[in-house]
Design a protein that fits this description.
Blueprint (H helix, E strand, L loop, with lengths): L1 E10 L4 E10 L6 H12 L13 E6 L4 E6 L1 H6 L14 E3 L1
Antiparallel strand pairs: 1-2, 1-5, 3-4, 4-5
Length: 97
């Protein structure tokens, strides 16, 4: 099954949140957290690293409005300077279309 996923990321040039829509393939027995982690890392073609190399998704929570909140591992905080960067309420957000 292939889903269109909206990936949001910060654009530090104009201080806005940008959107990139990509197709992500899900197969039986795939771990959704792993698929989305890899897809997010690859979606931006190394233009910006929203998720660091060692960042992994611990948990996913699909809200009634279609947004997917993600819980990231501690490496995300260690490897980024999130104290000085604001890019959304809780960081990057995936939205399924």
């Amino acid at each position: 099954m292939t889903e269109k996923i909206s990936f949001y990321y910060p654009d530090f040039n104009d201080m806005t949140i940008k959107l990139k829509i990509d197709k992500v393939e899900f197969r039986t027995n795939d771990v959704t957290e792993n698929n989305l982690t890899d897809a997010y890392k690859n979606a931006l073609n190394n233009k910006i690293n929203v998720l660091t190399r060692n960042t992994k998704i611990n948990d996913l929570n699909l809200n009634s409005d279609g947004t997917l909140q993600i819980d990231l591992n501690k490496e995300f905080l260690k490897e980024t300077n999130v104290k000085n960067v604001y890019f959304g309420k809780r960081g990057g957000i995936f939205k399924s279309k």
